[in-house]
Structures are given as C-alpha cells and as structure tokens.
Amino acid sequence: MEKVKLLTAGAKDLSLLTDLANEMRNEKDVDYFEVLLQLQKEGLRTVYIAKNISDYVGYCLVNWSPKYGLYKRLNIPEIQDLNVLPKFRRRGIGKAMIEHCEKVVKKRGFKHIGIGVGLDASFGSAQRLYVKMGYVPDGNGVTYDRINVRSGEMRPIDDDLSLMLVKDI
After folding, report:
1. Element (H or E) spanning 32, and its range?
2. pTM here?
3. pLDDT of residue 30
4. Contact between 116 and 163 (Cβ < 8 Å)
5. Would you tell me how many other CB atoms lie within 10 Å of the CB of residue 149?
6. How far apart are CA 130 and CA 127, in angstroms?
7. What's the rounded Cα separation, in Å, for the pair 60 and 50?
8. How deeply is 24 buried, as exposed, middle or buried, from its count of CB atoms within 10 A (0-12, 13-18, 19+)?
9. pLDDT tens, position by position, 104-147
10. Does residue 116 contact residue 135 with C-beta atoms inside 8 Å?
11. For residues 96 and 101, what is the distance between their CA atoms, to the nearest angstrom?
12. Other Cβ atoms closer than 10 A to 62
C-alpha cells in the first residue's frame, strides 16, 4: 500500500483541486470547490487533498450534514467525491483516504459513517473496495440524487444513481 497523507484543503488549493478534477475528467461546476470550501468554513464539510511522497494523487470530502434522508435522520456523516488520479489507482490510496475519513469521523464521536456508490461498471472498483472495507447497503434500495427511487420509477444510469452504504466505526 502506497503511503499517502491527507491534507485539509484551503482557499490556496482551489486551482489544485480544479486541476485534479480536470485530470480525472471529473467535470465540476465552475464554483464547485469554492462552494465546498465555504461550506468547510461553516463546519458543514471537510475537504481533503491526498498526497504521496511527491505528487498530489486525489481528493475527497466528509459531508457533516448530508442531504440523504437516512443519514440526516440518524446523524451519519458521509464520505463524498472520493477520487484518485487514474495513474495512481490500485495502490491502496482510496483505501487510505477512506480510513483517514473514518478516523476523523470516529474522533468526533460518531458511531457510523456513510458512503454512496454509483451503479454502473465504471464504479466497479469502488463497489468492491467499499464492501471489502465493511460498508453494507443501508437497506433502502437505490437513490437518485440522494432521493430513494420507488419501485417502477425510471431513472437514468448516471452518476446520480447510487446505492447508499453504511459502516459501524
């Protein structure tokens, strides 16, 4: 497993975060990271940048106030937007990022943590990683943009279609 350090992002990191997202072809709204950093100032998010010995390799965030109903109702923080640059994948970096987030959440006194995962094949590695790390479906089925999809409803298979997972920490 590659050694990685997670650094809390600040305003000085806006261009770095944008560059990382662009390198992953992970298109974001123009002000996406500015909004996240403002929410971080308000205590609603914590944005992390992952760095190995010499390179910035990814980013993620902990949402302390997620909009997903079950997480909100049970006060479960959610790991979101976990991204590792393609050339650094399969080295344990994603796992290290999740473990860091789990430690931070546990240190704040939470007993559970959540994470959502997309359903198409492009999320296959993430699906496998999350299960191997002890995350299980929350039992409420599929969501679209964090709203539960009812039986018979049609939704596109895109990044907003997710299975929500939880883990005891």
Report:
1. helix 32-41
2. 0.94
3. 77
4. yes
5. 16
6. 5
7. 8
8. middle
9. 999 999 999 999 999 999 999 999 999 999 999 999 999 999 99
10. no
11. 9
12. 23
Q: Measure CA 64 to chain center.
A: 12
Contact of 58 with 50, CB cutoff 8 Å: yes
Give the pLDDT confidence of 5-52 residue by residue, as tens digits: 999 999 999 999 999 999 988 777 779 999 999 999 999 999 999 999
Domain ranges of the chain: 5-168
Residue 134 half-sphere exposure, CB side, CA atoms within 13 Å? 9
**Calpha distance 40→75 (Å, rounded):** 18
CB-based contact 60:77 (threshold 8 Å) = no
Tell me, letter by letter, the H, E, C secondary structure of 99-141: HHHHHHHHHCCCCEEEEEEECCHHHHHHHHHHHHCCCEEEEEE
- CATH number attached to the domain at 5-168: 3.40.630.30
